[in-house]
Specification:
The protein has 8 helices and no strands. By secondary structure, it is mostly helical.
């Protein structure tokens, strides 16, 4: 009886062209959800709603559209911790694309999610979820 081919470590190439990075797997669900969010101007409505809670100076904040997309990912993929959500988003190119990050860009870490969650009151969270639920209802999803 012969043994199969052994798993071996291999060295990755040093340079990778950008066109090879951008042709990663797609997720139809998240692509469609992004299309729906664009149709209802989800990001624009959220930015207006959260403006009083964001400072004009200091550290750059996580845009609310990205924050809520990450929260949606946690909900849809049954991930209850912010560390888990951040890890999943950074590990998946299709989820990074859903968030608006290109190849080679890091997605937000768990501490950024925590700071944003602490900054935004429950009314903003409710507003975001009502926006998406109304949009899905209106589009028969």
């Amino acid at each position: 009886m012969a043994l199969g081919k052994r798993r071996r470590e291999h060295q990755d190439t040093f340079w990778v062209t950008a066109d090879k990075l951008s042709n990663g797997p797609r997720n139809v669900f998240y692509d469609r959800l992004n299309q729906l969010l664009a149709e209802i101007d989800f990001d624009g409505k959220l930015e207006l709603a959260v403006e009083p809670f964001y400072q004009k100076t200091g550290r750059k904040c996580l845009p609310p559209g990205i924050y809520f997309r990450m929260i949606f990912i946690g909900y849809f993929e049954d991930i209850s911790s912010q560390r888990g959500i951040a890890w999943r988003c950074d590990d998946s190119r299709s989820l990074a694309r859903f968030l608006g990050y290109g190849p080679g860009e890091s997605t937000p870490d768990h501490s950024t999610l925590s700071l944003t969650r602490e900054r935004l009151p429950m009314e903003i969270h409710q507003f975001a979820f009502e926006l998406i639920l109304q949009a899905t209802r209106d589009n028969g999803l």
